[in-house]
Amino acid sequence: MSEEKDGGAGKGSTLTRQGSIRRTSLLDAAEAVLVAKGSDASLRAIAGEAGVRVGHLQHYFPTRADLIKAVLERALERSLERLAETTGLRMVRDDPSAIELPAGQANPDEVVGVVLAEQEDPQLVRLYVEVWALAARDDEIATVVREFYRKYVAHVEAYVQQGRPDWPGEFCRARAETFVALVEGAALMRSGIAGSRSSSMDAQLAQFAVQLLRD
């Protein structure tokens, strides 16, 4: 009996790993097509990029909105992982209020540095730009994007509140919303899509972003 149970558990574990690998490859394909085709990033195009049938893709992600939600969630998870590796600051993706600080305090300069460093990746910036464009035309995708930024703001709010417990919650949230708006808008300029980047702009941006977190 125990051997049967162990065998069943092993098979289930293998299937879970295989499903995770397939899901990852589908998300990789979705990112590639979104960056390359933007609004033409249909499920058919993404399935073609992944080398699978549309039905196989829809087994994991029934709609394009479901797929984009997963793409954004993975992007947020990777951001939180980079933040933890660099600053020691650990936050839970599915519970924005959960925050674990390293000994002492997570330096806001380091936190801002990690956030802005992500804009050094032109493919990542282009991915967000294309998702924003899709959200402007598709209500389902707009709902997904709003939820993504709600979580993003909640993470920043938790960090601000931890560092400045004397600030009212509403004020911390306003700071967090302004921080996200500043950083996300800056991506268009710093990537060269909507303007040119300069070292003086980078310095001012970092200064204002840090001030929103602490001062």
Automatic annotation (TrEMBL):
Q: Which domain of life is it from?
A: Bacteria
Q: What is this protein called?
A: TetR/AcrR family transcriptional regulator
List residues traversing the bilayer.
Answer: none
UniProt xrefs under InterPro entries: BetI_C, Homeodomain-like_sf, HTH-type_TetR-like_transc_reg, HTH_TetR, Tet_transcr_reg_TetR-rel_C_sf
- Natural source organism: Streptomyces endophytica
Q: What residue stretches are annotated with the HTH tetR-type domain?
A: 20-79
What are the protein's UniProt keywords?
DNA-binding, Repressor, Transcription, Transcription regulation
Show the Gene3D superfamilies listed in the entry: Tetracycline Repressor, domain 2
Which residues mediate DNA binding here?
A: 42-61
Entry keyword Repressor: yes
Please verify whether the record's keywords include NAD.
no
